[in-house]
Every structure is written in C-alpha cells, then in structure tokens.
TrEMBL record:
<keyword id="KW-0560">Oxidoreductase</keyword>
<dbReference type="InterPro" id="IPR036683">
    <property type="entry name" value="CO_DH_flav_C_dom_sf"/>
</dbReference>
<dbReference type="InterPro" id="IPR016166">
    <property type="entry name" value="FAD-bd_PCMH"/>
</dbReference>
<keyword id="KW-0285">Flavoprotein</keyword>
<dbReference type="InterPro" id="IPR036318">
    <property type="entry name" value="FAD-bd_PCMH-like_sf"/>
</dbReference>
<dbReference type="Pfam" id="PF03450">
    <property type="entry name" value="CO_deh_flav_C"/>
</dbReference>
<dbReference type="GO" id="GO:0016491">
    <property type="term" value="F:oxidoreductase activity"/>
</dbReference>
<protein>
    <submittedName>
        <fullName>Xanthine dehydrogenase family protein subunit M</fullName>
    </submittedName>
</protein>
<feature type="domain" description="FAD-binding PCMH-type">
    <location>
        <begin position="2"/>
        <end position="178"/>
    </location>
</feature>
<dbReference type="InterPro" id="IPR016169">
    <property type="entry name" value="FAD-bd_PCMH_sub2"/>
</dbReference>
<dbReference type="InterPro" id="IPR005107">
    <property type="entry name" value="CO_DH_flav_C"/>
</dbReference>
<dbReference type="InterPro" id="IPR016167">
    <property type="entry name" value="FAD-bd_PCMH_sub1"/>
</dbReference>
<keyword id="KW-0274">FAD</keyword>
<dbReference type="GO" id="GO:0071949">
    <property type="term" value="F:FAD binding"/>
</dbReference>
<dbReference type="Pfam" id="PF00941">
    <property type="entry name" value="FAD_binding_5"/>
</dbReference>
<dbReference type="InterPro" id="IPR002346">
    <property type="entry name" value="Mopterin_DH_FAD-bd"/>
</dbReference>
<dbReference type="InterPro" id="IPR051312">
    <property type="entry name" value="Diverse_Substr_Oxidored"/>
</dbReference>
C-alpha cells in the first residue's frame, strides 16, 4: 500500500486558527476536512504537502438551517447528514438525491460538502449540483468574509476562486420558485462511482406551461465543472415536450472542453452528455 510523504500535522480548533496556519505555512500547507479526496492523493504522492491543517473538528461548521428565505449549509456537513436532511428533501431534493450516488457509505460518513467543493474535481457530483442550484459560497480569510457565486467559484480542474489563505465556511441556496423541479443523472464509473458524464438539472415551469428558467451543470465529461449554457438557452421559453427536450439536450456538450481517457473518448462523452441531460431534464419536469 502506498504511503504519504512526511508532513507535519496541525489541528485547528477555530476558523481563525486555520487561517493563521495557512498564512504561516503558505504553499506548503493543505487543508484536511473529511479527507476522502486529499488522503488518497497523498498516498499516491500526487499531493505532498509539508503541513496538513485539519479543520474537521472545528465547532459550528456542520449544520443545515433556514435563514430568511435561504438554506445555509455549513462546509463541514458530511454527506450522510445531507442525504438524511428533511429540510433539504423539502426544498432541494437534488442534494440528497445526488449525495446518495457518491461513493459508498464510508465515504458519505466522512466526506464533506465543503471539501468536495473546494477540491473542485470535475468528476465529483457536488460541484455540479451546487452550480445547477446557483449556490453562493461563503469564504473567510485574513481580510474577513466574502461571498462567491458558484458560477465564479469553479475555475478549472482542482482549481477554485479560493485565495491561498481562505477557508470555505458555508454554502447558501435561495429557496426555489414554485413549480421548480430538479434531477441528477450520471453515467458512473463502476469502481469509483465518479461521473464519466453527468448532468444536474433545475427547471422552472411558467404559468403558461413553458420553461421560465433552466439551470444545468455537466459533471465528469469536461475539464471543469461547467454550465450547459447552450441547452439552457434552448429550453427557456419553450413548451417542453419530449422532442423539444431531445433537441435542447443535444447541445449539452457544446462549448465544453471534453476529456478523453480510458473510460471514454471525447465523442463518447459528448454523446453521453446529451443522454444524461435529456434524462435529467425530463425527470426535473415531472417534479416541477
């Protein structure tokens, strides 16, 4: 079994302490939350931090609560809590539904929503789900707090808008409009459960039965978690019968930097984007 390179371990008891440690050790430091992304990378020596800053036991960063029309989720909330949350099932069933597809029960018991978002693996499920839900991410650093829209947060593969000395502390989601439905579909790698191609869809029906709003995010197929803008544009204002959905979904891979590897060629992944997008849209419509 592979083992990590040597490192110094630091346990942060507060967000301020974690920020101070990040400031002290700079590029040599990595933040540990649940550990189910970082530890495997360290064991393979793909990541070799000199200092590991454990934030996993900071009090007050694990919660799901309603605040003035917004659902706030603490960054250290683990997947099992998300999956079982009645509040999320009521307002954002996309999150429990998508969470149930992540890894296995051991992963869901330890992995955290904030860790997944900060890691920004394009094959992970949670970044695409939060992007489709148009979430806002609250960070804290030496200069205080700031709020970043999900559209601006995911910059590339394993790259986000987080500054080197910042910690992701909260995810905020505005309660959706009436007649809004959502769904997540993915073609998963059978071993890892990561997405080869996936689509999170959030669809709102207008009073006249047309699509008044559409938000779609693609996971797994591209170099980064990204929005399926062409499909969104093809849905809004349309009466969404199966033919219209099929046409809109056919554009799901447009403008994306599709990856090619042992799990699928660019052409295969692009086609699978259309397939999972159609399935996600149709299921979201049923729920709208």
């Amino acid at each position: 079994m592979s083992v990590p390179a040597a490192f110094d371990y630091h346990r942060a008891n507060t967000v301020d302490e974690a920020i101070a440690l990040l400031k002290e050790y700079g590029d040599e430091a990595k933040v540990l939350a649940g550990g189910h992304s970082l530890i495997p990378a360290m064991k393979l020596r793909l990541s070799q931090p000199g200092h590991l800053i454990d934030i996993g036991r900071i009090a007050g960063l694990s919660y799901i609560r309603e605040e003035n029309g917004v659902i706030a989720i603490g960054a250290l909330t683990n997947y099992t809590v998300l999956e079982r949350s009645d509040l999320l099932k009521r307002y954002f069933p996309l999150i429990p539904e998508g969470t149930a597809l992540i890894g296995d029960q051991q992963v869901r018991n330890r992995g955290t929503i904030g860790g997944s978002l900060a890691h920004s693996d394009p094959a992970s499920d949670m970044p695409g789900i939060i992007l489709a839900l148009k979430g806002e991410l609250v960070t804290q650093g030496p200069n205080g707090k700031r709020t970043i829209k999900a559209d601006d947060f995911f910059i590339g593969t394993f790259t986000t808008a987080l500054e080197p000395e910042e910690i992701l502390t909260e995810i905020r989601l505005a309660i959706p409009a009436a007649h809004t439905g959502s769904a997540y579909e993915k073609l998963a790698n059978k071993a890892s459960h990561y997405a080869i191609a996936g689509c999170a869809a959030v669809i709102t029906r207008g009073d006249d039965g047309t699509c008044s709003a559409a938000s779609l995010a693609i996971t797994g197929a591209a170099m980064q978690t990204t929005r399926a803008s062409a499909t969104e544009a093809a849905l809004v204002g349309k009466k969404l019968d199966e033919a219209a959905v099929t046409e809109a979904a056919s554009h799901a891979a447009e403008g994306l930097e599709i990856v090619s590897d042992i799990h699928g060629s660019k052409e295969y992944r692009a086609q699978m984007c259309a397939v999972v997008a159609k399935r996600a849209i149709l299921r979201a419509l049923e729920r709208a």
